[in-house]
């Protein structure tokens, strides 16, 4: 009998649905928030881009604090699961308030956007860091965690598919011509679904990897150990470059179809097919990881994704089928990478325990979420600034310079960040053989 038996499918599914809950907001913000702020709420692209970056200063403090807090939480439900129960409701409410769209002056609107966006990201931190860290303590096995990560991201991209397929049609239907009202009603539905799914995850999962009894509790020491964890430092850059690529590209999709192709409604099919590609990529990742070294696999997938994104720079206005095909290919290749990335994060928690005698799963995943949010902020910020620099003006016929800028945001610029991701992965030191040694040593220590 295996020392680390696989998790039951119902528990994997319960865990995965937590990322479906996250993606009701994460993907909605990633795909539509920049557009909502500029074309619906009436803010300038530069102001929005600056807000995305400025608010990350706050996250630089609260993300690691949340990880440290989660690592030190003790309850009858474990360290990480309680937050899924406690934070889900405020998380849902704050996400809805972001799209409330009150009437105010330009300054008032910007202040409202700063407050609601910052509070929503704080709630996202408080629920997503424990959620992500939960994967690291559901099983001590790298193989089991990789399989769990695969299910997680199938569910995550399933949520992304719903967002991509339903947001614009629901916005038009529920708003009856009023975009602001349509977004508000749509986000209310997503909020309710998100809260319910997080509670499902809480009820259907268990924590099995307990902290060592003699662990010290110095916050300063934990932060110091994090910065000495070389594999984690490499993954920080990987996540930063990956999410900059994703945020920049996804944020440009609606603009590209509305202003470059003159067919905003066609963005729904494009985004939906992309989500299907990501689901297929995530579903196939576990099988691929059993046959190939995960690090080399992720480098190959990332380079392929970069090439497919770069090809979208060409003029496909008269060959929409080819454009959708490239999108499907890029999404399939990109869909497998977060599965591998989050299995790597769990490995770095094992590495920290093996190297330093201290397991800081919550802090490691907190720092990973900070890298994720920083990448989204950088990608969104660069997109906003770049649009303004190219002469973009909302809801009018765009100049040739603005259309070219939108096309670059849609293709070559995210491709460049994908290549940076591949370069960073060359420095990741935890091979499969090394992880087998670490797992064996940790199992012996825990038995002793």
TrEMBL record:
Pfam families named in the record: MFS_2
Cellular localization per UniProt: Cell membrane
Keyword 4Fe-4S: no
Membrane topology category: Multi-pass membrane protein
Superkingdom of origin organism: Bacteria
Alphabetic keyword roster: Cell membrane, Membrane, Transmembrane, Transmembrane helix, Transport
Transmembrane segments: 34-59, 80-99, 111-131, 151-170, 182-202, 232-257, 269-289, 296-316, 322-342, 363-386, 406-428
Chief site of localization: membrane
Family label: Belongs to the sodium:galactoside symporter (TC 2.A.2) family.
Matching PANTHER family: MAJOR FACILITATOR SUPERFAMILY (MFS) PROFILE DOMAIN-CONTAINING PROTEIN, MAJOR FACILITATOR SUPERFAMILY DOMAIN-CONTAINING PROTEIN
Protein name: MFS transporter
